[in-house]
Amino acid sequence: MGDIAEDETTFYSNAEGYWKEVPPTVDGMLGGYGTISSIDINGSKAFLKKCLGEGEGKTGTGCALDCGAGIGRITKRLLLPLFNTVDLVDVTQEFLDKAKTYLGEEGKRVGNYICKGLQDFVPETGRYDVIWIQWVIGHLTDNDLMEFLRRCQKALRPNGLIVIKDNVSYEGVVPDEVDSSVCRDLEIVHSLVGRAGLCIIHEEQQMNFPKEIYQVHTLALR
């Protein structure tokens, strides 16, 4: 087991090191693809609006959590307009500091800024209507991802949702040495979600992204 533990430690510390060097800007958050931000947000908004509201099985709009929030790009444009309160969690303190100015006036409705890696983060039980996890699951090992999803499930309010939005590879697991992450295929993501004890309520592919980047899928889980 020693090797695995050592590899894991390196996997996480290398990723932390990578993000420490990234400028705290929208372009930095999106790896130079800042131009796709609006397409991404509009797709996410349409997806989320199908799940929110009044009525049976619909999800409330009290409190959301932005996982791997960076400077708060998603909080600012997707979550704060739809939820009363938003919490941000990210491994890089500099990004969270930047978020405080980047979010502007609406940032007053941020509940907590939490500086932690998701592998170590325990969200508060029963706090969230929506837990949004975008472009960050590749930074977790399979086991840590499943454990994190289980903790997220406990953190949901009644009818709450966990949303994963991420790149999927065409086949298998593709490592990215640059930012110390992996990209999994859809079948593997489905399998990990199931093993974490969650069901997929709704799933879509994000359209209109540049052809050269991986397909991006959004999954709502409960």
Number of strands: 9
Q: What value does the Rg take, in angstroms?
A: 16 Å
Distance between the termini: 32 Å
Instruction: Enter the CATH topology name.
Output: Rossmann fold
CATH superfamily: Vaccinia Virus protein VP39
Domains counted in the coordinates: how many? 1
> What's the CATH architecture?
3-Layer(aba) Sandwich
The helical percent reads 25-40%
Structural class: alpha/beta
Largest sheet: 7 strands, mixed
Helices and strands, in order, run as HHHEHEHEEHEEEHEE
CATH first level: Alpha Beta
Number of helices: 7
Physical arrangement of strands within the biggest beta sheet: 3-2-1-4-5-9-8
Catalogue the unreliable spans.
none
Which of globular, elongated, flat, extended, rod-shaped describes the shape? globular
What topology does this entry show?
Elements: H1 2-20, H2 26-29, H3 37-49, E1 63-67, H4 73-79, E2 85-90, H5 93-102, E3 110-115, E4 128-134, H6 142-154, E5 156-168, E6 173-176, E7 181-184, H7 186-195, E8 200-205, E9 215-221
Parallel strand pairs: 1-2, 1-4, 2-3, 4-5
Antiparallel strand pairs: 5-9, 6-7, 8-9
Helix pairs in contact: 3-4
EC number: 2.1.1.244
Enzyme class: transferase
Keywords: Methyltransferase, Nucleus, S-adenosyl-L-methionine, Transferase
